[in-house]
Fold each of these.
Amino acid sequence: MRVVGENVKNDIYDIRTALGMAREQGLDLVEISPKAEPPVCKIIDYSKFKYEQKKKQKEIKAKAHKTVLKEIRFGPNTDDHDFNFKVKHAIKFLQDGAKVKAYVHFVGRSIVFKERGEILLLRFAQAVEDYGKVEQLPKLEGKRMIIFIAPKTQKK
């Protein structure tokens, strides 16, 4: 096997010799590339290696963009003033980069006005179309009709 690492002459050794070299330094012999010809092993402190790997993964995860989902609730009989007020909030959310989940909540017998809810959500989507794009058209789930709107990407 080929042995690499710090304080080691990079060369081909048999397993016993490589393990002896690792023990002398108080380190571990770790197989890096088993499919190579001959297989490649490295003399390192395995626990330190694992720790650094975890640290790198944590950094990558921290730098990843987190998607925020904001909800806006309507009733089937929402008035124009309330509608406009909620549209302004949705526009601010979209400008901040958050997704918006708008829904009409049907209470009691108001479920008979499904068309009103759908019209309201489509009107909402049209009102915010300059700031976001519809990800999912209005869909009835139980007592709620839901629409998802994602922010439009900023062009530089």
Note: The chain is about 40% helix and 30% strand.
Amino acid sequence: MNWLFGIDTLLAFAGFFGAFYACYKNGPMSLWIPLAYFSLSGVLQAFSTTIANQCNLPDNQVATLLGYLHFSFQPFFINAVALHFIDKRVAGRLDLYVYTLCFTALTIMLIQVYPFAWGGHCEAGSVMCGEQLCTVQDGWHLSWMLPITQIHEDIPWYFIATFITPLIYGSWRFLLLYTLTCPLLALLVTHNNLNEWPVVSAQLTIPFLLVMTYLGSVQNVMVTKRWVGWRSLEAGY
């Protein structure tokens, strides 16, 4: 457990330091604000390692709910980075629609976690599904488990907002690299444990965003200056 605390603390510190320095140097807010946001997850997880598996402890339950809330807001910050890597005029015309979709996904995810009597219960084995609010360590890292309902469970709102949307508006280079190095790698590391996957994916996103923020050569590769689907927007039509 102690080694998890050390890793989570180190990642959080590196993320916050990187975000602060980028802010000090007037770096793009679309990069350092998401970096700071994901670093918050590192702080939460470091604290959670000290109370894991104590499901009746109020601190454990609150930390679990905060973890779910962090997960629910992630599409806003992933799309902020994705929009950074496309043409600025195109991004300026799309951001309202993109964030509206993120807000829709957020709203439904918040509704899903409220224990409506008529809402049913999530299927065992689905992402973060559990019988009660609890952060546990049942593998090599932590898992968030919540009694999520079946409301709108047939529509993967998080994945639509986080993965499909950037692909639609043309930030495919960012999406490809992010998917390979964070969500997919987390899935492989956790051996398809869907309760551990959100925690590990959030932690992997911290070093990923550090690289995106500071390595200019990577940024140049990521930028999509022109995409056929948005030529009319870029031309001002």
Note: Confidence is low (pLDDT under 50) at residues 227-237.
Amino acid sequence: MQLEIGPDPAEVGRARRWARSRLAGSGIGEDEPLAETLVLLISELVTNAVVHTGCPAVLRMLFGAGTGTAQPGTVRVEVADTSARPPRPRHADGDDTNGRGLELVDGLADRWGWQREGAGKSIWCEVDRCAPVVTGVVREPGGYAPSCAVTHRA
């Protein structure tokens, strides 16, 4: 599934609404931490494309089923644009109001990267639907977490 994104910051909100409806259609509830994480990742990647390239973009979501790019149990988000300029991670200082996008992606996604796509590029990230639980789980002897609850890294 994909959504065409115009080079307008208002498109970020439209991308979030579109993503929420697609997540619900895939069985990921709106109030699940996984949904919140994916919507935040989408917001950051679309914002980067719109703000830093000024070009139209395409947002894709792939729900891993053992085919295509996403692995089983994985949700992959891709934002492709027509700018050949590679992403440039920055480190924001305490009072900076921007510059944290790719740091957030790095902290929230299980994997991320970018690749050339046609004349432009695609920035992608993946979140495992059944990631290890970090907090709030009573573990059985041996450290095994019996459920597939998703709580992402702090």
Note: The chain has three helices and five strands.
Amino acid sequence: MNSHPIEQHIPRLRRYARALVGDRYAADDLVQDTLERAWNKLHLWRQGSDMRAWLFAIMHNVFVNQARSRRQDIERHMEELPVIAVRGTQGQQLELMEVDRALRALPPDQREVLLLVAVEQLTYDETSRALDVPIGTVMSRLSRGRERLRQLTAGGPGSSPLKVVK
């Protein structure tokens, strides 16, 4: 039995959704909502165009729509994420948790661009289409996001530095 071309993109959608919302269950819901919308709108996808970018664009729109309708809930939820206790020998895990916290401290528009370009390896053009913003906006958000992330992880101006655990 052959699989549908959408199926090959599910792992990347899950990873991006998890990075956007920070919660596995909310990420699964976002992926499901995205796939449902994509399936219902499949007739709008242009054959030969990049399905991955199209799916990320749908996910972005679903995420923004949900964030608009539940903005306070999302902010409260992100602040209430539990701190996971780990043993001192798990320095890499702690570093990943600190980077994750720094990513969450970024404004959503910078975080989205940073995740699409750096993690999902979309080009600036693909990211521009996925988020429906000009390439210049992608580049400036990426630059500001990278700089802010650098500040957060190095303790730069206006930040609370992340702990270095050894």
Note: Residues 86-166 form a domain with the Arc Repressor Mutant, subunit A fold (CATH 1.10.10.10).
